[in-house]
Design a protein that fits this description.
Copper Amine Oxidase, Chain A, domain 1; Heat Shock Protein 90; 23 strands; alpha+beta
């Protein structure tokens, strides 16, 4: 049984075919070397190579990374023995970009062609295991899920058999300023289609961070009230004030929003919406419920453990 902490560090993908080979980035060679594996273990003949990470600035963390890779090797060889696999071959790919080192380890049943892929992704700048949210920001997983869903909906060549859920355990690597998420063969479409790869470009999203000190909470309901103007203007929206009507207009990204402080009536492109609370003005600043950004402006939001809010504007083009 794999421990939860081990699952967080390592991501899994099952393929019923030979490995999807990706040419390793030249810059990754500064951090990766290979270790040849050749042994007979529990009636399994093992061959190939596994990666070894080098040159990290924190030797203790480097030890943990290599221990995680060794755990992959031990786990896959043990599983091969249980399944009575006679020939098992290891190989690997690696990429390095903007301080993110992605390592992909393949273990292939040579007889059946079934390949298991695990990825280890680390941030070499801070010597820590990395995640989708860690690279893209607090709404990274939400954005990746929407990107994948959009790609599937527009794919006229393949019939998908189930929803593609992206979460903290989804296999991924980082390349060309994009997260590439992977789904097991048979997980979201037919096994014959192999592993499905979806690119989630970081350039199609922009994050705004609102520290906990810059918003307030309607304590009885735990609804966060976010400053409107400074938030939307950071995304390039314009804010207008109609003194005669006492209303505010927000324009941008093909959306026109009309709202009036004290009235729980948010108009999005002429369609009226009610949220938890009406807009409020405090010390000359207009605040709106955090849900406004999702329900009216089609953005994403999340809150970290310190109470800081991340709001994300994104496109699926």
């Amino acid at each position: 049984m794999i421990k939860r902490t081990f699952i967080i560090m390592l991501t899994i993908c099952f393929i019923v075919c030979m490995p999807y080979s990706i040419a390793a980035d030249d810059s990754a060679t500064d951090y990766i070397t290979s270790k040849t594996v050749s042994e007979n273990k529990n009636n399994v003949k093992i061959s190939g190579s596994i990666p070894v990470v080098k040159n990290l600035t924190n030797p203790m963390f480097q030890y943990k990374v290599n221990a995680a890779i060794t755990d992959i090797y031990d786990l896959k060889t043990a599983e091969a023995a249980e399944r009575k696999v006679r020939l098992l071959k290891f190989s690997h790919d690696s990429f390095f970009e903007n301080g993110i080192l992605s390592v992909i380890v393949y273990s292939t049943n040579v007889v059946s062609g079934e390949t298991v892929v695990r990825t280890v992704v680390v941030n070499t700048k801070v010597n820590a295991f990395s995640s989708i949210n860690g690279i893209l920001g607090g709404n990274g997983i939400k954005y990746a899920k929407k990107t994948v869903e959009n790609a599937i909906n527009n794919d006229k060549k393949i019939k998908y058999t189930s929803d593609a859920n992206v979460d903290e355990y989804t296999p991924f690597y980082f390349r060309n300023r994009a997260i590439v998420v992977m789904f097991n063969a048979g997980e979201i479409t037919y096994v014959s289609k192999g592993v499905r790869y979806f690119s989630v470009p970081a350039s199609n999203m922009k994050n705004a961070i609102i520290p906990s000190s810059q918003y307030y909470v309607k304590s009885s309901y735990n609804v966060k009230m976010i400053p409107l103007r400074q938030t939307v203007e950071s995304f390039g929206y314009t804010v207008g004030w109609d003194a005669a009507k006492g209303s505010i207009t927000v324009n941008g990204n093909d959306t026109t929003s009309l709202l009036t402080p004290g009235k729980n009536n948010y108009i999005k492109n002429k369609i009226s919406k009610r949220l938890e609370f009406a807009p409020e003005i405090k010390n000359g600043i207009t605040y709106v419920p955090i849900s406004y950004f999702e329900e009216v402006l089609d953005m994403l939001f999340s809150v970290d453990n310190n109470g800081n809010v991340t709001i994300t504007k994104y496109s699926l083009q």
